[in-house]
Amino acid sequence: MNDPTRNPYRYAAVWRGLGWIMVAAVVVLSLVPQLPKAPSLLGWDKAQHFLAYAVLTAWFCQAYSRHWRWPAFFVALGALLELLQGFTGIRTTDPFDILANSIGVSIGLGLSFTPLASGLRRFDDLVSRCLETPSE
């Protein structure tokens, strides 16, 4: 596992902030009464769940560190939000959505063990180079 005390990113606060904005978006989209229409490619509900939780898990495993707490957090969040939908009176709880969320978490965690796991680090390096002021 990565050392959680060592942060390899120059703009770590930005990447972490973006991650929490993504979490907020998932929470809002999970609890609003009427969902906005998704692009046709992602029109299938289970694909939206799978993709959202895979991206969140992969992102947090990069922005913080690859640790068991992120998959556990996102599985719990997905299950909690799905259960809360049943209390809205408009939306319903779907156990297959919980399963799709959990599979997405598993894939996101799996991706954190591949070369894709260095994508955020490479992007951070690129941003750093672009924003550096040349020394005279």
From TrEMBL:
Q: State whether keyword Acetylation applies.
A: no
Tell me the InterPro entries matching this sequence: VanZ-like
Instruction: Name the source's superkingdom.
Output: Bacteria
The VanZ-like domain covers: 44-112
Q: Which residues cross the membrane?
A: 12-35, 47-65, 72-92, 98-120
**Keyword Transmembrane helix annotated:** yes
One Pfam family of this chain = VanZ
Leader sequence residues:
none
Could you tell me the keywords of this UniProt record?
A: Membrane, Transmembrane, Transmembrane helix
Q: What's the protein name?
A: VanZ-like domain-containing protein
